[in-house]
Amino acid sequence: MARKRKKTGPDLTKVLIAFLGAILVILVGTAAYLLRAPEQTASDEPTAATAAENEYDADAFVMRDGFLCYEAAPYRIGIDVSTHQGLIDWQAVADAGVEFAILRVGYRGSTEGKLYEDEQFRENLAGARAAGLQLGVYFFSQALTPEEAEEEAALACRLLDGETLELPVFYDWEEVSGGSRVESAASVPMTDCAIAFCEAVERKGYTAGVYFNQSYGYGHLELERLQDYTLWLAEYGDTPSFRYHFDCLQYTDSGTVDGIEGAVDLNLLILQ
Fold this sequence. Notes:
Blueprint: H1 8-41, E1 61-64, E2 67-70, E3 75-81, H2 90-95, E4 100-108, E5 115-117, H3 121-130, E6 134-141, H4 146-160, E7 169-173, H5 190-203, E8 208-213, H6 214-219, E9 230-234, E10 248-255, E11 264-270
Parallel strand pairs: 3-4, 4-6, 6-7, 7-8, 8-9, 9-10
Antiparallel strand pairs: 1-2, 3-11, 4-5, 10-11
Helix pairs in contact: 4-5
């Protein structure tokens, strides 16, 4: 009887064919993925420099003695003022528990674009300093270009005349309704203007910062480009919901403080 031959040859061939086919499928699939991957994943990829997230503990914001406090880190209580607050009894302000003040140093007119010193700046500077408050200043900008923002920074530094500040010189661009020379906020290169202002301020030896509200923070400013500066957010309420990091919070424009007639902006500076 003839010996039956084993069928190892045909089975091995099938295995090899299947194996090579599987490799081919993997290679084709990988090539296809790589070709379309940038289009599919670009929106999910982090940029080289991203804005830091708001990591504050929402439960740690509490009202105490008429001021917003933050229980999870050291903080300071402050106000910001301009000529609109009139004459201020700065010692009464300090005795009420206010620890810092951000003074308007100057502004650009919204119609003709001229530059002005705040009419009460020198008195506020002298009074707040004598009362022992820590100080910063802000410039109300209507700059249309980075060059105009640099002009504003130059005036702010000239008016400070070498005065030592514990807090930054802030850039404050806000849209003004009625008769403004600004076509719209969208027409202004706001981030470029803010950076031009801040860089000019820093060249004079001061710390720089940028003031903005939620709308500007989300829609007009590229916060990822402003991470090197102190960020001052205006969001009214007891618990800020703004997605991105900030250092100082203006939480009301209708606060009351001894020594000031009428309403005043109240601020919380978180030290982290």
